[in-house]
Write a structure and sequence with these properties.
The chain is mainly alpha-helical and 137 residues long. It has helices at 7-17, 19-27, 36-109.
Amino acid sequence: MMLLLEIPQVMRMVVFHSPESQVAGALGDTQAEPSLDQVLQERDEAIAKKQAVEAELHTCKAKLRAVEAQLLEVLEEKLRLRQEVEAWEEDMQQLVRQRVESQLQRESRGTLRAPMEPGAAKVPWVRLPLVRWGHWQ
């Protein structure tokens, strides 16, 4: 098993003993191949860049999870409020139905009284069961 410390030695052998470097050396072109130091520096820069990108990815994933949790909370609150509105609508329908039935019964018995003056009719106070709706207890 090769240790990481042996990699520069192996790379030197590959860089300096490759057919391309031998041809370049025979032609006097010593700038054709990058030096081992340049290759190692580029590798180190690439590793650092990869680590930075991975750290940014980790940060973005954490932010995404936080936003998803907030969205879930908002959707749950919306569902809860929708259920409260539906309960309120049912209660209002029931209240109106009771009022209409009560008025029809009074009319059928002939006990419906006309108001004394326009605008002087009193509307009885109705108490709604607000406990059913949750936070208005």
